[in-house]
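Please fill in the sequence for the structure shown.

STRUCTURE ENCODING:
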């Protein structure tokens, strides 16, 4: 396989990567603690907040498809994930002696001992550690009116204060909060619901905070994304003899204002993407749906 090599000025060099199962894989472990409260301020108003801290160890990492893995060799020192020179050749020949075969191609000169560029262990390995801290907040408010039915407002969100990641036990913990394909500092959702039997309407707003795309040079600042959904439903009730008894008809508009996902400088891949981030946004614009439900 080829990998970008910083020792070769970033050019691609040929080496060997090991794939397949790892029978020595162990469970991930975490130390978790939380502290929070729920406060019913009035019969109609409730607020709550929870602070959390999660310290993961022995997290499973895999570097099989990491094209820049050779630039991480110093952080992976002592793990055997990246080997060069004679150490690489020795490890490859050891695997060959165990019956491991090449999935494609052949060794230069027909000998495993000639591969001294690099060896990468691309199996799942218990190497990583991450520390996540943040706060979950929720607010619920509801009230009845004499003539206009019932209204309810719900809001919730997660605000992360820390997210640090180390790819190996001896590697430094690095801040990865608000970087692409990592947790975002802010995610929030709010809704307003109106119940006026047999009609129910709901407006929901989701917010995903902006972040940094550090997969390109210079780094790209990616904007936030805030789609709005709207649902309107009619319940026919459970009257005996009514042809529509037990039915509910709903009409939904997703992404009501046809908000476009922010542009992200990404090439298409097996997960989608290609100009947008499939992990945080939806490239499909406004959508309509009509649903008829029947209960017995």
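FILLED IN BY: designer on duty
SEQUENCE:
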């Amino acid at each position: 396989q080829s990998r970008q090599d910083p020792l070769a000025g970033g050019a691609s060099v040929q080496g060997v990567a090991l794939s397949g199962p790892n029978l020595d894989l162990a469970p991930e472990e975490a130390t978790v603690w939380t502290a929070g409260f729920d406060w019913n301020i009035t019969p109609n108003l409730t607020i709550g907040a929870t602070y959390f801290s999660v310290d993961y160890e022995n997290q499973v990492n895999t570097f099989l498809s990491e094209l820049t893995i050779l630039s991480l060799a110093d952080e992976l020192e002592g793990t055997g994930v990246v080997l060069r020179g004679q150490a690489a050749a020795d490890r490859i020949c050891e695997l060959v002696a165990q019956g491991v075969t090449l999935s494609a191609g052949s060794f230069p000169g027909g000998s495993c001992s000639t591969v001294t560029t690099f060896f990468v262990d691309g199996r799942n390995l218990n190497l990583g550690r991450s520390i996540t801290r943040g706060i979950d907040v929720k607010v619920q408010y509801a009230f009845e009116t004499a003539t206009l039915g019932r209204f309810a407002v719900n809001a919730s969100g997660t605000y992360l204060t820390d997210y640090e990641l180390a790819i190996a036990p001896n590697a430094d913990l690095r801040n990865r909060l608000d970087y692409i394909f990592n947790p975002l500092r802010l995610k929030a959702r709010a809704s307003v619901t109106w119940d006026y039997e047999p009609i129910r309407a709901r407006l929901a707003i989701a917010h995903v905070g902006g972040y940094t795309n550090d997969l390109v040079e210079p780094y790209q600042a990616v904007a936030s994304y805030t789609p709005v959904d709207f649902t309107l439903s009619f319940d026919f009730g459970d009257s005996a003899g009514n042809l529509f008894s037990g039915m509910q008809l709903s009409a939904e508009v997703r992404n009501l204002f046809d908000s476009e996902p922010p542009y992200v400088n990404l090439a298409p891949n097996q997960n989608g993407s290609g100009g947008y981030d499939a992990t945080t946004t939806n490239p499909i614009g406004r959508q309509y749906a009509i649903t008829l439900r029947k209960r017995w």
